[in-house]
Amino acid sequence: MAAVDPLTQGRESYLRLAWRDAYEQMRAADRHARLEADDLDRMARSAYLIGAFDAAVESWERAHHAFLDRGDVAPAVRCAFWIGIILVLHGEQARGGGWLARAEHLLDDAALDCTEQGYLRIPGALRALDGGDPESARRSFVEITEIADRFDDADLRAFGRLGQGQALLARGRVVQGVSLLDEAMVAVTTGEVSPVAAGIIYCAVILACRSIFDLGRVQEWTAALSRWCAVQQDLQPYRGQCLVHRSEIMQLRGEWAEAMDEARLACEHLAAPPGDPAMGMALYQRAELFRLHGEFSEAESCYREALDKGHPAQPGLALLRLAQGRLDDAAAAIRRTLAETVGAVQERPRVLAGSVEIELAAGDVEAAQAAVDELGKIASGIDSPYLRALVAYAHGSVLLAASEPEAACVALRRAWAAWHEIDAPFEAARVRLRMARACRRIGDHDTAEMELDAARRVFEQLGATPAMEEARQLMGRTSYPNPGGLTPREVEVLRLVATGATNRDIADSLVISEKTVARHVSNMFTKLGVSSRAAATAYAYEHDLV
């Protein structure tokens, strides 16, 4: 039986999505006899898909020159486009920009009417989108889609619809934008789009859905990406980012151990070759899980590494400082981040939610209310159950801090229902802690104890050590003796003092004499070690006695 030559094997492996085999077999064939332009292009794509980026660029360069040598300008321009895009994505802006400029000049000199005209418009459209001009970007992507339709290019058509969807989301037209993203994904999932383009579109669509907190679509498309990655041999790009998104979904669903495993695998996968921008995202995700578990030193290390990789460390690092008791550092960090993220729709809601937590801890209810107002405005333009839950929780927390426990209970109950609908157990349990405080303020101690107990069980199951400790401290306050050794009557007097009532008002309310009230106030001051009604009032709020 005659042996099959490596080139034939390589072409067959390429069709089977066996990228490692295709690359190795084509490289073997190339050593025997230099490959022609089309096979060099296949070898470049195979190299890229197994993470051999330098080899991919080298092969595409050779393919580019081979196409030019035989007079095929259009495919030579396509090779130059992929070289430029991949170099830019990996941080080599100057070199990548040079290849893109070369492609444009070749196309202009040849005066060709071809699909590559559309590809070369993509970088400019992306610059407009990143530069804050989504309408100009949208028009460019519409033109790109029209070129794709004219030449029946599935890859370019998917890129055009992806870009239109991203631009519409940036303009706040969520329904229309998401529809175009879904349409782009249909072409990917039905196999109409080539693997290199498909991976880019998968990741871009998931990030776009993540930016509008459409967790249902994030979960659906992440699952589809996982299946897509699984059927391709040794696929390197995209798999790491997929693991990060899987970890985020698992965290929300309360599968923290599995989420930590996925985040760790993502970091390992993205470590080689270096330079993948998703590494910063993976490190930040690990940091968040460490923080929630109470492993603060590990969290800080990951936040710092994420920042080194170009990913923002906030609001996670500020919330870590809050958990460490470094309130001044937390407040300074979150206020600076708020000033820097104006207009950054994707980052802003999470920063605002962190700001509410930190400002309330700092006692600045007005600043917390301002953050809630802005968060509510963002949520009103996006149909996101996640954002609605976030707003309701923040609103209830501010109402509680503003001494409106009854209204806080209403908002917090709405937040709990929203988190429960999303199936987010940790967030729902955090609401129950706030509910317990609110119920205690209005004297509903039975409900407060039940809410606390339910929250504590969730925290223990997840291993959420800081939250679990907070729940335990609150549960301890429900038992006697009262804080400061106060008698039940002295607690009643303290609660009324905290409302601003005079001794006469207290006497009338409790149906006792002013002299008796004065004695209770004096004893209370002595036990608490305070010398003024203002100090006693502060103590009452600190210990949830009001």
TrEMBL record:
InterPro entries, alphabetized: Sig_transdc_resp-reg_C-effctor, TPR-like_helical_dom_sf, TPR_rpt, Tscrpt_reg_LuxR_C, WH-like_DNA-bd_sf
UniProt key word Lyase: no
SUPFAM superfamilies, per database record: C-terminal effector domain of the bipartite response regulators, TPR-like
SMART domains on file: HTH_LUXR, TPR
A UniProt-annotated Pfam family: GerE
Residue ranges of every copy of the HTH luxR-type domain listed in the record: 479-544
Keywords: DNA-binding, Transcription, Transcription regulation
PROSITE patterns linked to this entry: HTH_LUXR_1, HTH_LUXR_2
Protein name: LuxR C-terminal-related transcriptional regulator
Organism: Streptomyces massasporeus
